[in-house]
TrEMBL record:
Keywords: Hydrolase, Metal-binding, Signal. Its EC number is 3.1.3.89. SMART domains: HDc. This is 5'-deoxynucleotidase. SUPFAM superfamilies: HD-domain/PDEase-like. Its cofactor is Co(2+); Mn(2+). It catalyses: a 2'-deoxyribonucleoside 5'-phosphate + H2O = a 2'-deoxyribonucleoside + phosphate. Residues 1-22 form the signal peptide.
Length: 252
């Protein structure tokens, strides 16, 4: 909510109105009465909560400063992330898939995987959701680099690290930027139980998408199944992958 608000009080009611309305309204005083405790309680609650709306521009600035991100830097960051919505996943493009998914499409369904997965002891599901939606975020700058591009894993990782640093600086380098950076690094290094399960989600989402393109467009995308076979690290990843492969066999 933008702009300033006028706090209008009677003995038992509090009204918040844009300051431009100040000259347009007059309020009659309502006397406080022990016969109406509900009204008195509502007035007290409104009075306590009203401070969060007064000088809200200043509060917004303070909150942004705490997070190390201004409104301007947040919008700059989000505008850069728009590329994730428009950049198509290169593996499908190279195999002539019609209207292939974007990078953002891929990350979104991975986020859903983390959301719907059953609770696993020792796994922070909320962290998995966050990791899923940032693991490919650097591709907003470097694009979707695939093994067929002839770029080593080391070079790919270096490019993505530099891109991520740029994006975190663009965001303002505060708490949220640091969180994104740590989540991305944890995933990249496969250094936690959450990273391992999100790595599996990455592969599961890819072969599920491959199966869908085979069914919808008649492509033979067996190479995607072969490239992930035996590489799942978690019981959940293995179970979901096995289900997808089983469904594929029934159609072939």
């Amino acid at each position: 909510m933008g702009g300033r608000f006028l706090l209008c009080k009677s003995s038992s009611l509090v009204f918040l109105l844009p300051s431009s309305y100040a000259t347009q309204f007059r309020f009659k005083s309502f006397s406080s009465s022990p016969k109406n405790p509900k009204l008195n309680r509502m007035a007290a609650e409104a009075s306590l909560s009203s401070s969060s709306f007064i000088n809200n521009d200043d509060n917004t600035t303070a909150l942004a400063a705490d997070n190390g991100s201004t409104t301007s830097s947040a919008i700059d960051f989000l505008s850069l992330c728009h590329r994730l919505k428009t950049t198509k996943r290169a593996g499908w493009v190279k195999r002539d898939v019609k209207e292939p998914e974007s990078i953002a499409d891929h990350m979104y369904r991975m986020g859903l995987m983390a959301l719907i997965s059953s609770d696993i002891p020792g796994i922070n599901r909320d962290k998995c959701i966050k990791m899923a939606i940032v693991h490919d975020i650097a591709e907003a700058i470097v694009g979707d680099i695939t093994p067929s591009d002839g770029i080593s894993k080391e070079e790919k990782s270096q490019r993505e690290r530099e891109a991520l640093d740029h994006m975190c600086n663009l965001l303002g380098g505060g708490l949220r930027a640091k969180e994104i950076g740590l989540l991305w690094m944890e995933y990249e290094e496969n250094s936690s139980p959450e990273a391992k399960i999100v790595k599996d989600f990455d592969k599961v989402e890819m072969i599920l998408q491959a199966l869908e393109y085979e069914n919808e467009q008649g492509h033979d995308l067996d190479e995607f199944f072969q490239s992930t076979a035996g590489k799942f690290q978690t019981d959940l990843g293995k179970a979901w992958a096995a289900e997808i492969v089983s469904r594929r066999r029934k159609r072939h």
